[in-house]
Amino acid sequence: MKKDRVMKRLIPQLGEATLQSRGDAFTTLARSIVGQQISVKAAQTVWDRFAALAPATITPASVLRLKVDDMRAAGLSARKVDYLVDLALHFDAGKLHVDAWRSMDDEAIIAELVAIRGVGRWTAEMFLIFHLLRPNVLPLDDVGLIKGISLGYFSGDPVSRSDAREVAEAWKPWCSVATWYIWRSLDPQPVAY
């Protein structure tokens, strides 16, 4: 708030909610895949239908037991079904360094995650923000972040990644927190993966 005029205004307006982890790495990544390129509201609807397919909770093993047709009927595209199955296979086979993630740096985790089909940099960054609660992630591929910076800092004019990076200099080392407030400026309901 001391370094940024927009944050100085936004943070007090948006109340006491905070960024919180759901605590489960697989669920966070699966929710991120479901949420790719659709609105937060649509993602929640599809997630709710998808989660209802599992007998108890969504786990790698439960996803691997689901029928493709049922997942498609829940609103998932064929591509997202493939991505969710590949994610489940990676977890189920122990191909990920889940226990080491807390001590790994952001770029090392991103490199491991993008090896999974359907997990790009944006999805890996959502994981860093929403699961590991890393404080200084700047997801420049996030449409909401770019839109929020455009509206908050550039009177709605188009914003380049370079412009966004420049604005975010004042946010360091709290880019994740500032990003979360930018998202909330667009939709006051806190986003959670």
Automatic annotation (TrEMBL):
SUPFAM superfamilies: DNA-glycosylase (SSF48150). It catalyses: Hydrolysis of alkylated DNA, releasing 3-methyladenine, 3-methylguanine, 7-methylguanine and 7-methyladenine. Residues 34-187 form the HhH-GPD domain. Its EC number is 3.2.2.21. SMART domains: ENDO3c. One of its GO terms (biological process) is base-excision repair, AP site formation. Transmembrane segments: none annotated. Keywords: DNA damage, DNA repair. GO terms for cellular component: cytoplasm; protein-DNA complex. InterPro entries: Alkylbase_DNA_Glycosylase/TA (IPR051912), DNA_glycosylase (IPR011257), HhH-GPD_domain (IPR003265). Coiled coil: none annotated. One of its GO terms (molecular function) is DNA-3-methyladenine glycosylase activity. Belongs to the alkylbase DNA glycosidase AlkA family. This is DNA-3-methyladenine glycosylase II.
